[in-house]
Design a protein that fits this description.
alpha+beta, seven-stranded mixed beta sheet, six-stranded mixed beta sheet, 32 helices
Length: about 950
Amino acid sequence: MKTRPLFAASLLMAALNGAGAQGGGGSTVSASAAPDTSLPGIPTIAFDKYTLPNGLQVILVEDKRLPLVAVNVWYHVGPANEVPGLTGFAHLFEHMMFAGSKHLPRGLADRLMEGAGASDSNGSTDYDRTNYYDTVPSNQLELALWVHADRMGYLLDVLDQKSLTNQQDVVRNERRDTVENEPYGIVEEALNHALFPPEHPYRASVIGSHADIQNARLEDVRDFFTRYYGPNNASIVIAGDIDKVKTRALVAKYFGSLRRGPAVVRPKVTTPPITLEKRLVVPDRVELPRVYMGWLTPPAYQPGDAELAVAAQILAGGKSSRLYKSLVYGRQIAQDVDANQDARALTSAFLIEVTARAGHTPAEIEEAIDAELAALRDHGPTEQEVARARNQIETAIVSSLEKLGGDGLADQLNHYNQYTGDPGYLAQDVARLRNITAADVKQAARTWLQKKSRVVVAGVPGIPDLPPDPPAPKPPKARSGHGAGGINEAEAWRAQMPKAGPAPRMKLPQGDAFTLANGLTVIHHYNPALPLVSAELVVRSGSDANPPALPGLAGFTAQMLTEGTATRSAPRIADDIAQLGAFMDADSSTAASAVSLLSLRANFGAALEVLADVVQNPAFPTAEVERQRASRLGDLMQQRDEPELIAALAAAGALFGPRHPYGYGQLGTEPAIRAVTREDLHGFWRRHYVPGNAALVVSGDISRAELETLAEARFLAWESAPVPPLVPGTPVTTKARVVLVDQPGAGQTALRLTTLAADRKTPSYPALEVMNAAFGGLFTSRINQNLREDKGYTYGVYSGFRYDRTPGPFIIAGSVRANVTGASVTELLKEAQAMVDKPLDPDELAGARNAELLSLPNRFETNSDIGASLAETFVFGLPLDYYSQLPARLAAVTAADVQAAAKRYLDPGKLVVVAVGERKKIAPQLEKLKLGPSELRDSEGQLRP
C-alpha cells in the first residue's frame, strides 16, 4: 500500500537488507539437514523450505515467543521488470492487490484482518520485488492464508476500471505526498535519473511519474498479473507460533491448486559505467542546501558490496563517523550526514548526503566530503574503525530479528531466499562482515568511489520545477464480460471464510520492579529470545516542566547529556558506544525525558556504564552547548520544510496557548533556543534528573539478579534529591475555528483538526481507543475509507489521542490535494457528527474492539517495545499489571461507551481546523464552510501579528 523511500534511509538497514543477484531454487531443504553454519553470538534460525508442484516456495519457521504468526509473501517482480512508458507500474499494481478479489470484495479483506487482530499489515515495492505481509494472532493463520491465496489466484476475476481509477488517484496522491511535497524528494529523484540512463529500469523512482501512472490501462494490469503473479514467481514465509505439519496442510489447501504462471525471465540489463562526473543543481522548497553524491557499485553479495557497507558506516554511521566528526562536530558546516550502500539486483548505488548548516554553501560541503573520501581512498580506515562499524551493523542485524513480521524475521528470510537462494544465509552474511579488514575497505573505496565515476547533485532553496501533474481524465467505459479474465478454476469452498482456531492465551509483559536505596525505581523484564538487552533511563519530566519563557528546555537538556561528562568528551562517548556495537540516544516528550540503549548481551554491562555516566555526570561544556544550539537552530529550519510538522505546531499553539508548555514543539522557538544558557540546562538537569523522579527500565536477555548487581554498581551512588512538582498550567485555547499557515506554491494542504481531550489515566481509555479505531485509527476506518478509498483526496488520513498527565489533544491529520481542502474538511466534520449521532452497529463495534484487543501482543514484539510500555506505566503512575488487565477492559467496551466517548471528545463544533498550504487557494474554500473566526500563524505555530 505504500512505497519504500527512494533511497534507503538507514545505513544499517541497507547493510542488513542489501539485494543481490536473483536466485531461489525449487529444492526441498530442511534446516536440520543443512550444514552447521552457526556463528558465535548469532542466533540460528531453524526453518523448513520446500516447493509446491506449482512452483510456490514455502519457508516455515516455528517461533513460540508470542502467540503471533507472520505471513510474508514476496513476488519476484518490481520496477526492474517494468517497460518504458509504464514507470511506477509495479507499485501501482501493489495497490491493486488490495482492491478486492473473487471471494473477498473490495475492503473486506482489510476489515476481516483488522478485526482478527492483524498488525504490520501492508505491502511495499522495491526495485526487485514486491511484498505483502501481515502479523496475526496464531489462531488466525488460516484467515491470513485464505486472503493471500485469493489475491494470488482470483484477482483477475473481479478486476475492473473503477478499482484501477481509484488506485491511480491514491498513488498520485502518494507521489505528491512522498516525492513532490517531501523535502528534497525531487532532488533525490534527479539523482536517480542522473545515475542511470533513460532506458534503465532503475532510472525512475519506484512510484513512477504522474503521466505513466495515469496512462496505465486495465489490459496492462491484467497482463502484469498474468506474467508475474503466478505461484512460481513467489515465495511465502510463515514464521511464529505454528505447528509445521498443520501449516504445511493449510498451505497445500489454499495454494496447492493455483495454476503455475508462465516462466519468468529475470531482467538482464547492462548498466553502463559513469566515466565522467555528472553535476546537477536542483531547486526545492527547502531552507538548507543539501549535497548528494552517488556512484554505481557492485550488486550485493558480490565482491565489494559488504566492504562498501562498512565504508558507509565509517563515513557517516552516527556520531563516531568521519563525516560527522569533521563536518558536523569539528567544522560545524553541516547539519547532518548520511551514507549508504544501496544494494540491488542489477547494480547498486553508493550514496552520500550532507545537509549544510545555515550560511554554508554546497561547494564548501563538497570540498569537505572530498577531503574525507580522499583520506579513505589513500590511507584507508583504522582497524578500530572497521571493528566499530562491524559491531554496530551486527547488532542491527540481530535486533532486526526481534519482530516476526513487518521488516523483521519473516521478511529477512524471504530477502535471503530471493537473492541468495538460501533463507538461512544469516550466518554467512555475518561471516562475510566479520572477515572484512581495513585493507579491504580501502581497496573498495579506491575501486568504486572515484570522482570521475560519480554524480553530484546540489539541492538548493528555490522554486521546484515539478514534473507535469495532468488532471485525471474521465475513466473509460467499463467493458462487458466482468470476471472473464480469471486464471484459476472456481472452487466453491473458497467462498467460505475459515473459522478461527482456539484463542491463544494472551500473556502480556508486566515487569518486575524493585527500588534502590536512593529511590531509583528499576523495572525488569526477562526475555531470552535473542542475545539483546534494551534499557531506558526515564525521568518524569518532559516539556511539561519547561518554564514559560524557555520552551524546548527539556529537549535541549536531554540532547546535552551525550555531549560530554566529567570524564568523557562528546566524541569519546560516541566512540565508546559504537565500539561496543551499541546504540544510545537521548530525547524528551511532553511527559518524560529519557536516555535509551540497545546492546548485545555480551556488551550490556559496559554500555550501561556509559549510560549511567551521561545521566549522572553531564558536564554541559560551554563549547558543546554552542554546538547543540547551532544544531537545534538548524533542526528548526528543517522543521519548516515539513508541512505536517508545521500543522502540528500550529495546532499545539492554538489549543494550549503561549503560556502553556504544550503549546510548543520539542525544539521550542528560535528566541528560546538563542536565549538558553548553560546555567538553565544544568539547572533543569539538577532539579529533574534525580533518582526519585527516575526509573531504569530493562528488557532482554538478562536475569533479575544480574540486573540488580549492575544497577547497584552503576546507580547506587546517584545522590537523592527532592522530586520537583509538575504544574503545567491551564490551556488557553484560541477563539478561532480556522488556523491558517501560508505556504506559497504548495500543491497539497496539510490538515489537522484537533480539540482538547483526555489524560492518560482516564477510565475511558479503552472506549476512546475503540472509538478512535473505528473513526480514524485503522486503515478501514471511516475517515480513511471516505477520503482515500472513496474520494481519492489523499494518500491517507488518520486520527488519534495523545494522552498526557493533563488532557492532551485528539488529532485528525492528513495531507490532501489543495483543490479539495474545503471538501475534505466538510467530509471529516460529517464523519465526526455521524460518530456522535449514532452508535456503532454490532459488526463495526466488534471489528474495532477486536482490532485493539487482539493486536495487543504485537505491541510487545521487541525489547524496546516492552521497555517503552513499562516506562509508560512509571511515567503516568499506572500499575505494573496495567497491560495484563487491559484485554478484559477492552473486551467490555460497548457501543454506548463508544458513543459517549464520541459525544464528549468528537464534537465537530469544538474541532479547530488547521490548514497549512497556499493561503490564496485554500482560504476561500474554508471561508465557504462558515466555520467561524480564522487566524494566521507562523511556521513555529505562533500567532502572526
